[in-house]
Design brief:
heterodimer, A: alpha/beta, Cholesterol Oxidase, domain 2, B: mainly alpha, about 50% helix, disordered N terminus, binds flavin-adenine dinucleotide
Chain lengths: ~500, ~170
């Protein structure tokens, strides 16, 4: 049973051995592994609990339901929109199911530069998590028209690309993954590890926003939460007393929660080193209708411009992108009739995005009312790489058959046709053209490492400055990952939970 | 605007928009605190309606009007699920956009009483402003308007979108 906090006003106090905060890729796996390992687990999730029957494939219903701040989270200067999930399953409920293991060169970098130990255990966690999420190869016949066209374009230019692996089984190819899977064929946390945790006896409470973790030296930890009603307003209070806390609230909220609790701050690194994998989208119009809002949105990717063996610090991945009307509209330039001149071709549209393995970094801290204030500065070298990536997107789209590609600079949108070449982009860049970037992968704000002065948690996610409080989510990545992160995050949840089980006699206090 | 003024607006890309509390916005609320359901008074609704109409003007004969689509009610519903601070920012911005032509463009009339062409000129001024904050405000309001309009099924034929697959195509 997953309990909806909204049905339980008033004040309550629970006890458990472990309290997990957040039910996304990190928290769901940690809760399941701990419960299956015999521990008494309570999991608190601030968002609601929804099922396939709730996912009606409509943007107006699903965006407010499944996205943190209804998709309105962004950096302080508004230049990068940051999308994150909310609700049982976290971001995995609406993510796009690319499944990549942590790249080998990145793991080596974590070991060499940050002293992360026991790399072999990552491998074991990858195996377990991939089995748990039913990861499999996408089949040729499952590619939609956009993905086929993009592959054609890449092959024409001699660029390397691959059909991806994903965590869908029996996909009906409706294409609405971003709005929650109405068929439960997406093997998100909501339908895999959360039921496993439940079956193993974990108590899972939705609508419970954790505000603070109180640590009693040498004793228990007390987790303080606000219970939210249907409209998201406070209507109750809950405390959970536990020997161990696993914080998996994601890379924006975990550092804020720890800071609000006075934990994890000893190194001065809490909330810092934020990487975003920022991306630029290039929408294009094709002569033939693609109906790219249907079918698996991202089945293929181009990895020609990322070679982590040679350079583990930077690179670009190109990925197809498409969506229903509103999501598409927001990525098109202008307003009114000029904007509609682009949007009217929705059925002929499809795009590519360039995702950056970023060296640039930023920080998260609490702003007014405890809301996250996110700062991030895209360094000139990274901007240059992103723009190179954007030009590759344009070229691939042309080679894929696009008649025109839009580069949505705010004050001077470019409509580029194959005969135009990409040099116009350089001109607009040279005079400081402005593009809105997107991020779906905030990470590294509680980074992992063995040097207590440079990291927030140790190799297994335990806070250096507070025993028995662990972090298991994207915030512990020691560096930018350079690949879609859900498998890495879930594996960290698995690895941290097993470590807790191994050390249980000592941790129980 | 003597204090740091922050407005986080973006595209929803797969993106939506982002608005954050202005420094002189409503009183601080705890993260996650929600406002009361009635969002906008009649005046603010009128401004939002005027902005939305120009933002989503298609010029197509027979295109559903903003009021046909229930766009304003839909935007209000979206706002009802957001923190008080964010809602306060949206209200403030609407007032600023309304007053801007009167005060800053010396038109001596508010946005909502301008002609369509004048409204478009005023909005163009926000879009192409040299001040990043004004451009951010523009995109925040543009995306709100698009959310209200393009998520309504009656507008989908304009862009050839057949709609969700659920129940029909699978
Ligand atoms: C649109 C989108 C598409 C993506 N596509 C892919 C993809 O194709 N492949 C891939 O590998 N990755 C993808 N990702 C990223 C992937 O989903 C994340 O890497 C992963 O879910 C991160 O796990 P997490 O546990 O760190 O955080 P999340 O999964 O975001 O979970 C954090 C949870 O904590 C909850 N929470 C936050 N604060 C509190 C609090 N105070 N109290 C209680 N609960 C709280 C949140 O509501 C949320 O449910 C995508 C992400 C997005 C947004």
């Amino acid at each position: 049973m997953i309990e909806a906090g909204r049905d339980h006003p008033g004040t309550r106090a629970l006890r458990s051995e472990v309290c997990v905060i957040g039910s996304g890729a990190g928290g769901a796996v940690a809760a399941a592994v701990l419960a299956e390992g015999g521990r008494d687990v309570v999991l608190l999730e601030q968002g609601g609990h929804y099922t396939a029957a709730d996912f009606n494939q409509r943007e107006d219903s699903m965006i407010p339901l499944l996205f943190e701040d209804a998709g309105m989270r962004a950096t302080e200067d508004g230049s990068i929109v940051i999308l994150q999930g909310r609700g049982i399953g976290g971001s995995t409920t609406h993510n796009l199911c690319y499944c990549f293991r942590t790249p080998e060169p990145i793991l080596r970098r974590w070991e060499q530069e940050h002293g992360v130990r026991d790399l072999a255990s990552f491998e074991e966690s990858f195996e377990r998590v991939e089995a748990g999420l039913h990861v499999q190869q996408i089949q040729e016949e499952e590619l939609n028209a956009l993905n086929v066209a993009i592959r054609r374009g890449a092959e024409h230019l001699g660029y390397h690309g691959l059909v991806a692996r994903h965590n869908r089984v029996g996909c009906v190819r409706s294409g609405f993954c971003l709005l929650g899977c109405a068929y439960d064929v997406k093997k998100s946390m909501r339908v895999t590890y959360i039921p496993r945790a439940n079956n193993a006896g974990a108590r899972i409470l939705a609508d419970c926003r954790v505000d603070r973790i109180e640590v009693h030296p040498g004793g228990h930890r007390l987790v303080h939460a606000t219970v939210l009603d249907r409209a998201g307003r406070p209507h109750g209070e809950l405390t959970v007393e536990a020997a161990v806390v696993v914080c998996s609230a994601g890379a924006i909220m975990s550092p804020l929660l720890l800071a609000a609790s006075g934990l994890g701050g000893a190194s001065g690194q809490l909330g810092r080193n934020l990487h975003l994998h920022p991306s630029i989208i290039a929408p294009a119009v094709f002569q033939e209708p693609l109906h790219a809002y249907y079918g698996i949105p991202q089945a293929y990717y181009i990895d020609e411009f990322i070679d982590l063996e040679r350079d583990p610090r930077s690179g670009i991945i190109l990925m197809p992108i498409s969506g229903p009307p509103f999501l598409t509209a927001t990525n098109l330039p202008g307003f009114g009739r000029k904007h509609f001149e682009h949007l009217r071709h929705l059925s002929h549209m499809g795009g590519l995005l360039a995702l950056l393995h970023d060296q640039s970094s930023g920080e998260v801290e609490a702003g007014r009312g405890g809301r996250p204030r996110i700062r991030y500065r895209l360094e000139p070298d990274d901007r240059r790489r992103l723009i190179e990536g954007l030009k590759h997107c344009v070229e691939v789209l042309w080679a894929a058959g696009a008649e025109r590609v839009l580069v949505p600079y705010h004050d001077e949108p470019l409509v580029l046709r194959p005969q135009d070449g990409v040099s116009e982009i350089d001109r607009v860049e040279a005079r400081g053209g402005e593009l809105t970037l997107n991020s779906t992968h905030p990470q590294s704000t509680c980074r992992m490492g063995e040097d207590r002065s440079r990291s927030v948690v140790n190799s297994y996610g335990e806070l250096h400055d507070t025993p028995a409080v662990f972090v298991a989510d994207m915030s512990v990545f020691p560096t930018s990952l350079g690949a879609p992160p859900q498998i890495t995050t879930a594996s960290l949840g698995d690895r941290t939970a097993r470590h807790v089980l191994d050390r249980w006699p000592e941790l129980r206090g | 605007m003597n204090r740091r003024t922050f407005l986080r607006l973006g595209t929803f890309g797969p993106a939506l928009l982002a608005l954050e509390g202005l420094a002189f916005g409503p009183p601080p609320a705890r993260a996650g605190d929600r406002p009361e359901p009635e969002m906008l008074d009649a005046g603010l609704r009128e401004i939002l309606g005027a902005v939305t109409e120009r933002m989503v003007d298609t010029g197509e004969p027979g295109a559903p009007s903003v009021s046909d689509t229930g766009a304003i009610e839909r935007i209000e519903q979206l706002l009802a699920g957001l923190d008080r601070e964010v809602v306060g920012s949206v209200k403030l911005l609407l007032r600023v956009v309304d007053l801007w032509p009167a005060v800053m463009e010396l038109r001596f009339r508010r946005f909502r009483s301008l002609s369509d062409a004048e409204k478009d000129e005023s909005l163009e001024g926000w879009l192409t402003s040299r001040i990043a904050l004004r451009r951010q405000i523009f995109f925040g309001l543009r995306n709100l308007a698009q959310y209200g309009y393009w998520t309504d099924g009656s507008t989908w034929p304009l862009v050839g979108y057949p709609g969700p697959m659920i129940g029909s195509r699978v």
